[in-house]
Amino acid sequence: MAITTARLPKTGRLFRQGLRRVALAAALAALGGCAGLGSFADLGAKRGETPYGAYLAGRHAASINDQQKAAEFYDAALRGEPDDPLVLDRAFMAALAAGDIDRAVRLAERLVEGEPGQRMARLTLALADIKTGDYAAAREQIAASAPGPFTALVGTLTSAWAAAGERDKDLVLEKIGAFEGRTAFALFRSYHQGLMLDLLGDAEGANEAYAEAMSASGGSSVRVVEAYASFLQRQGRADEARAALEGFLVFAPEHPLVRDHLARLARGEELPVQVRSAADGAAEALYGLGSALMQDTSSDLSEVYLHLALYLRPDFDIARSLLAGAHESRKRWEDAIAAYSRIDRASPLYMNARIQTALALDRLERDAEAVSVLRRLSREKPDSIDPLVAIGDIYRAKENYAEAVIHYERAIELSGTPSDGDWTLYYARGICFERLGEWDKAENDLKLALKLSDDHPLVLNYLGYSWIEQHRHLDEALAMIEKAVERRPNDGFIVDSLGWARYRLGEYALAVKYLERAVELQPDDPTINEHLGDALWKVGRKIEARFQWNHALAMNPEEKRVKLLRAKLDYGLEAAESAEREEAAAGATGL
User: SS3 sequence, 115-180?
Assistant: First the structure.
């Protein structure tokens, strides 16, 4: 949470003393802060666990997205300085970010004593009241919040859901009506008005609001589609419910929730009701806000809203999946695994949760565990190709191409006759065959992937690049890569392919043009930097060429490239390539 200058005069004794220690703290941070939490934890210990040391450690923990540690350190600081408003504020926000909402509620009660209008504290208290069914108290909490954009959106939705909990339809319409004419909030208004009137039994009003939400979203919001389909089925309009769900598949053909709802309809089963209480409705609002804020990776507000949604509705699997995804985006793999582990086995999102768990384990270099998770999932879901593909992807990323091929082939066998959606299977297996030196098989897979994908840029690029490297079908390969660049002009790897194709054709000046652009787009790739060095050498810019080769060498290239890069730096391009050819020829003859 940002701290405004208007609040600085409230800073207490701890931080008046702390300001005198800033220079020392900064020096210690510079010496050891990059090593992790230890430096700040030690700082607190050396001062007898001083509140200021704990506060610094909390700041550092928050800066590296360890919200649980941040909460612990801020609580330690608060125990030493229980009346300092800045520490209290930090401890409160850290509790929210860590998902300890019960703790946050207790801190919010203290926070509003000194700052009555504190918006997030008032919201937290209002949600606690909604959870216990004290809807009037919840509305009073929101009314006491300081005005502003936050209150206008979150506070209004919370107040409206509290009114729905009181079953006061007139008040519901009054509260939600505050969004009338505000284009930015149109979808929130119509969707939540539909949910509220549906909860209150006003079928006519709910139908009108749901239809408006469908129109505002273009049928692309899965939550709107799910809610409307459930409502339509309960109104005896199952065919319309099916049509709404099938319409969503245009946007996400394999969405597990929509596929699950269509299967339920086919079996004649009742679709789940989106909202069964005011608490569910407020959780839905918080989920929507958290989803909308997911792109802002500089703030943890998205995760705060999702934690609050799960506080109100612990079985909210789609919110838990989104929270896990937020952890993944911040590379908090252990937190992501913990969140995914709480998704119920019966949930349509269970398979995705297990696959993402495996991928998170792989990120943590726990490959054996990752594959074990996926093997168990494959046994549980023997008709699904997804676990097999995920195993193949893990092995392919580790350059164990032979093992990857085995799992891709099992997935291909299970998928049956090739269809458009299967192009990624053949593309992935084709890459593995190419890496294994089985070019005929690779070429067949890549050609089929190209046909099934309707000339996807990735396939155009890979097949075209491979042909260029083999000096085959040069005109066709060049045309394919140019087409890929037209479709993805800002993809550094594809632009690199076009530059390298020009290089292979002896068009060195044109190669430099494209390869310089590729390096701009993908500056940290060693192969692209090496390619640019080669092209620069060919046009006589040898100092720049050596700079690029040095740059490539510093980027941890593949081991087989390291020796060649060093030879280029020592002897120049032609001599290095000549030595490479002689070595390859000697190896081929067994000398």
Answer: CCCCHHHHHHHHHHHHHHCCHHHHHHHHHCCCCCHHHHHHHHHHHHHHHHHCCCHHHHHHHHHHHC
